[in-house]
Amino acid sequence: MNPNDTFDRALSDWLRQDSEHRVPDHLEAVLVRTIATRQRRWWSSLRRRLPIDVTLPPAPLSRSGSWRPILVLAAVVLLVAALLLLAVGSRRHLPAPYGLARNGVVVAAIGGELFRVDPATGDKTPLVGDPPAVGVFGPMFSRDGTRLLYLHGVKGNKAEIVVANPDGSGAKVVSPAVDGLDQVDWSPDGARIVFLSRVLDRGLINVVSADGTGLRTFDKLPVPANQVSWLPPDGSAILFRGEHQVDADPPPGIYTVRPDGTGLHEISTRPAANDYDINDVSAAPDGTTILYRESPAVGGFAIHVLDLRTGRDRVLPSPVTAAGQTSAGFSPDGVHVAYLRLSFGFNSRLLFQLVVAPVDGSTVGTELPLVGVLGDDGPTINNGFFTPDGSAVIANELATRTEWLLPIDGSAGTVIARGTAAYDGLTTVQRLAP
Amino acid sequence: MRRDLVERARRGDHDAFAELAGAAISRLDATAWLMLRDADRAMDAVQTALIRAWRDLPALRDPDRFDAWLYRLVIRACTDEIRQARRHRFDVDISEITTGPAVADASSAVADRDQIERGFRRLDPEERAVIVLHHYLDLPLPDVASTLQIPLGTVKSRLYRGLGQMRAVLDADARAGANAHEGHPA
Fold first, then answer.
1. Do the interacting molecules here have an ipTM over 0.85?
2. Model confidence over A20-59: pLDDT tens digits?
3. CA of A160 to nearest chain B CA: how many angstroms apart?
4. Which residues in A lie closer than 8 A to residue B65 (C-beta atoms)?
5. If we measure between CA atoms, which residue out of A139, A134, A160, A104 comes closest to residue A426?
6. d(C-alpha A115, C-alpha A416), whole Å
7. By the CB < 8 Å criterion, does B47 face chain A?
C-alpha cells in the first residue's frame, strides 16, 4: 500500500464519519414544500416536429382521341424527350429547401415499423420493419425529398439516427445511440442533421453529416438546449430554446448558434416571465420571423411573432372566448400558421382546437375539425404540420391514435393512418418540385 | 420497484415522491453537509434540490437515472450556496487561526481528521464535489463525470488538483511540526 492509498482511505473514512448525523431530520419540511409546489407539466414546452411535407398523389394523366398519326408523333417526341433526359444525366428536378412544394410519398411510423401510406385510401405498404430494424419511429424526409431519416430505438432507452433512401433501401446508422433523441432536423441542403441528446435531462445539440461523419456535440454551451431546428434559409445557424433548469442557467430564451458550435447568440428580445415562458419556438421559411409562446404569470398562453430584422414583437389575435393559444408553426410559404387554441368545455374541461390563421394577424383564423383534450402527457393533439403544398395540416390525435389530414379551409378531414400503440402514426411527407 | 416509484412520481403521485425522498434524504444530507460544512445551509440545499426534483420530475427522460439526477441537483444547489455565500460574506478560514502545531507522519501521508478537514475546507466547490462523489458516494469517475455533466478529463484534473491541495496542507503541517520541534519558525 503506497502513501496515496493510505491517504485515500483516510479521506474516505473521514468523509463517512464526518457526514453522520450532522443534519437534523427535515424530510417532513421538504414534503410540505413539495406538495405545495406545482409539478412542471412536460407539455409546458410542447414539442412539435418541424413542418415537413405531405403529399397527395398527382392526378393521373388523361388521354382522349384516336388520331393515330398524332399519337405516333407524340410518342416519338416523348421518346426523344426521354433520351434527352437520360443524356443530361437523368437528374431529377428537386424542390428548393423552403417554400411551397408538391406533395410526395407519405411515410408513417406504426407499431415500430415504417409504412408507405396512400393518403387517399389509407392502404399501407411496409417500408422498414424487418429485423433488426424493428423499433423504428420518427421518420423525416430531407427537404429535397431524396433521403429519409428515422430513429431506431436501442437498448437502454436510447435511440440512433438512420438515413436511408426514400424506399427504405441503403439504410445506414449515422449517429451514436443517445438518450433523449426526439428532436431531429435536416439542414436545408440535406448534407447535415442536427439532433438533441440529453445527459441527465440536460439537452445537448449535436450536428452530424448525413453520411455519419463529423459528429460534433455542443457540450460547452452555457445553456441547456431544447426545440432544436435549422434556422432557414441558408443553414448558417441552428435555432433553439435555451432552458432554465437550475439556478446557474440563464433565464429561458431563444438562441442561435453556428453549426460548428460557435457564435452563441440570444435573439429573444424580452425577459422571460418564468421558466415556461418564451417557448415552442419555430422559424418562418425565410428565417426572418420567429414564432414563440408567451406564458404569462397571469393569463393564458399567447403566440408571439418576432421579426428578427426589426425587433418588432406582436401577438397573434385570439377570440375573446379562447383561454390561450400555443404551439404555432408556419405554412411552407410563410403566409399561415397552424396552432392549438385552448378553451374550456363542459365541466370546465380544457379543450385544444387546431386552428389555421394568417400570420399577419388580420383574422383569428379558421378552426379545423379536430379537438383534443388534456391527456396524461399533455394535449392529445400532437405534431401538427402543413403539407408541402400548404393546402392541409396533418396532425396526430393521441387518444384515438389517428393521423389526420385536414384541409386548411376547415372542411372535413380524412384519416391517413391509424396506429396501434401510443404516439403511433407520426408521419412525414416527401417534398417534390412544384 | 424503484423505477415504478419514479414513474408514479413523474405522473404527480406525491406519495411515491415522498417514498423516494425518504429513501434518499440521509445521503443527500450527508453530501450537502460535506460540501457546505453547515447544517442549516445543507438543509436549504437539499430542500432546494428536492423541490426542483419534484417540480421537474415529469421532464426526466430516463427513470433509471433518477439517483444520478438527484445528486446532480444537490451538488448544484450546494455550489450555488457556496457561490452565494462568497458573494455576501468575508471568507475567513478560522482554521488558519486556531490551528496549533501538528505532528504529522508526512512520510506515509497518514492524516488526522483535523488536517483532512482543514485541507478539505480549502477546496473549491467543484473539487469538493468530485471528491465527495468519488470518495464518499463511491461513484466511479465516469459516473462522476456523467453526474456533474463534465468531461472525464475534467473530473480527473479536479480530483488530482483537490487531492494535491489537501496533501499540500498535510505536508505544510508536517513541516511546521518539524520546525517547531527543531526551534525554527514555521
1. no
2. 877 888 888 888 877 777 676 555 444 433 222 222 222 2
3. 16
4. 179, 200-201
5. A139
6. 12
7. yes
